[in-house]
Amino acid sequence: AQSYEKAFDYYKLAADQGSVLALRYLAEAYTKGLGVKPSEEKASFYLQLRLNHLKARAATGHINAQTILK
Predict the structure, then answer these.
(1) CA–CA separation, 38 vs 18, rounded Å?
(2) What is residue 36's three-state secondary structure?
(3) Considering the entire predicted model, what is its pTM?
(4) What is the C-alpha to C-alpha distance for residues 39 and 21, in angstroms, rounded to an integer?
(5) What are the angstrom distances between the C-alpha of 6 and each of 39, 41, 51?
(6) Which residue has the higher pLDDT, 70 or 38?
(7) Cβ distance 58 to 64 under 8 Å?
């Protein structure tokens, strides 16, 4: 359990620096209760934040549609 908590902390740091992959892992952690108390609300928050970041990158041409689907 401690390794999940530590991983969550690192993913949180990465997400705070703009990593959309880290946002996905934070959402998964909240969905499955990995290192944190399960919370559908927080999982949804991080998934929506990830989607917003991906849409912004797509709008500027920095990523393509296939990246958004991953």
Answers:
(1) 23
(2) coil
(3) 0.81
(4) 19
(5) 18, 21, 25
(6) 38
(7) yes
Asked if 54 contacts 29 with a C-beta cutoff of 8 angstroms, the reply is no
**Interval 20-69: pLDDT, tens:** 999 999 999 999 999 999 999 999 999 999 999 888 888 887 766 565 55
In the numeric block, which tokens belong to residue 55?
């849409």
Whole-Å CA distances, 49 to 1, 23, 46: 26, 7, 5
Helix (H) or strand (E) holding 52: helix 40-59
pLDDT score, position 41: 98
Distance from CA of residue 59 to its chain's centroid?
A: 19
